[in-house]
Amino acid sequence: MKTLIGTCQTHDLTPVMGKLCFPEKGMDAFRGEACLAVLSDSLPLSEESTVVGTILLSDLAVPATYPCPFLRLPSLSSEHHGKIALLDPQSGTLFISPDLSTLDRYTQALCSACLDSPSASRRSWVIHTPEEIARRDADGWLLELTAPPDQNAEEFYYEQYCDAADRAMGTPIAAVVNLAADRAPEQTREQIRALLRGAVYGRFSLLLRGILSPDGLRLGLEEVHRAFCELESEGRECNGYLPRGILIDTPMSLVCELSPMGLDLIALDLPRLLPLLTGSHRSMDERLLQGILPLLGRMTERYGKQKKIAILSLSDLSNVFCKELRSMGTEEIYWQD
After folding, report:
1. Which is it for the CA torsion 199, 200, 202, 203, positive or negative?
2. pLDDT digit string, tens, across residues 10-19
3. What letter does residue 317 receive in the DSSP assignment?
4. 120 falls in which pLDDT band (50, 70, 90)?
5. How far is residue 2's CA from residue 100's CA, in Å, rounded to a whole number?
6. Contact at 8 Å (CB) between 7 and 74?
7. Domain check: are 308 and 181 in the same one?
8. Of 102, 79, 84, 94, which is closest to residue 33 (Cα–Cα)?
């Protein structure tokens, strides 16, 4: 690890991390990745939405309103082009190829900044195609793929998951598999096989939708295990150890006495669940909200050790939901347009 001390002049003291990019060497090679642009002399910075921080060399002037943290250094060799670096604006330090202890401090500082901020610039989003990953920055993705063509369903899903992993570049992806009764079992099996294969290339987890009974949950988890054993016997590369969970999206799945054994995640799909609980598709008022949330808390108490996540729509009451859900132990919230 190489450490350089400089001067930061920015109101944003949140650490940022990305690849060091010298514009004269070309920033296009890192398109889609977080970049720390290194500017010297009179070289202008091109419009790059992926620039999270800037290193200013020599005596370049700083605009009055700057979109990201910057650090002024006397010099920096272009041999570091493309290397991972961490910019800590608070200490005015640039860490090139940071070690594990530095990365750990960075993660803790970043988490604290996100928790203290009333509206973090990065959110987790619900998407239906891998292409949507390139349209916005995010902390995570909940991917529910649309129906594939009639033939080669497994290969269709596999290509989609590989594409999503490539675009996410390490960002977590929760993949939804629908176990609804009106869906052919063969299609479900092919999607699970495809996910286990694609999970080799990204940070995937599995969410089962359509679990309405203990037997349904047991059969769903057995299907995942069976798919893993099949792939292993075929000698195909796969990841059978990705986290597994269920999506609660109907009153039946909410009140059903499901065993938490074998589950790592519990997800509340509130845009689907709340209208079914209240009988209304309109935005909920405060009184109705206060009546529903304690019910949700009681029904999910049995999943004490499982990580809890929730899906919210971008409605007027989303911020209220977010605060209340956090108090119930919800660790991640995914937003749906």
Report:
1. positive
2. 656 778 888 8
3. T
4. very low
5. 13
6. no
7. yes
8. 84
Distance, in Å, from the CA atom of 277 to the CA atom of 289, rounded to the nearest integer, reads: 11
- Element containing residue 271 per DSSP (H, E): helix 270-278
- Closest alpha carbon to 37 in 64, 67, 12, 59: 67
Query: Among all chains, which residue has been given the structure tokens 């991640």?
Result: 332
CATH number of 9's domain? 3.50.30.10
Amino acid residing at 214: P
Whether residue 75 is found in the same domain as residue 25: yes
Reduce the DSSP state of residue 287 to 3 states and report it. helix
Q: The domain containing residue 85 runs over which residues?
A: 2-115
Query: 227 near 192, Cβ under 8 Å?
Result: yes
Q: Are 282 and 323 in contact (CB under 8 A)?
A: no
Amino acid at 167: R
Phi, psi of 95 (to 5 degrees): -105, 115
Residue type, 196: L
